[in-house]
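Justification of computing resources. Each target in the renewal requires a structure prediction run like the one illustrated here; the chain below, 99 residues long, is used simply to show the kind of job we budget for.
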Amino acid sequence: MWQVLPDEYVRAQLAVGSLVALGVARVVAAGMGAQRGWRITRVTRCFIGAAAVFCLPQLLEVIFYSDSHLAFVELQGKVIGCAVALFCAPIVSHRLGYE
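Resulting structure tokens:
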């Protein structure tokens, strides 16, 4: 009755979710930073740390449980989404005039 989703669907869903979450938050933080005089390198470093914390639960599960295939697939999706967000969000915020 309960069917398991294929790995590609889980990976893509988590990639898009983390892309949207971190991407939007990064653009908003760049806007706030432009108003408050924050250095953009500091904002970028904070979001690299946020991406690491966002991926930490799956990373710990992969490290400590050897048979956690689902956690590895989730980790791949989150890492891909975070990497794309950290690459594309500065481009978007630059186009908006925040950087």
